[in-house]
Amino acid sequence: MKGRLGLAVAVAAVAAVPYVAPTYHVLLMLPFMAYGVVLLGLNLLFGYTGLVSFGHALFIGIGAYTGAFLTSRFGVRSLEVIVLTAAVLGAVVAAPVALLCVRYVKIYFGMLTLAFGMLFYTFVLKFYRLTGGDEGTPYLRPSLLGFGLNDIPKTDYLTGPYYYYSLVVLVVAAAVMWRVVHSPFGLCLKTIRDNPAKAESLGIGVGRYRWYAFMISAVYAAVGGALLGAPIGNVDPTLAYWTHSGNIVFMTLLGGFASFFGPILGAFVFIYLEDFLKSLAPSSWRLIFGALLAATVIFAPGGLMGLVGRARPRST
Amino acid sequence: MILRAEGLRKLYGEFCALDGVSLAVGAGEFVSIIGPNGAGKSTLINVLTGVLRPSAGTVRFHEVDITGIGPVRLARLGLARSFQLVQIFPDLTVMETLEAAVVSRLGRGTRLFASLARDRAVQEGALEVAELFRLADKRHTLSRQLPQGDKKLLDVASAFALRPEIILLDEPTSGVSTADKTAIMEILVAAGRRIGLKAIIQVEHDMDIVFGYSDRIIALHQGRVLADARPAEIQADAHLVDTVIGRRPPRPAAR
Question: Which one of A223, A277, B187, B230 has the largest count of C-beta atoms within 10 Å of its C-beta?
Answer without folding.
Answer: A223
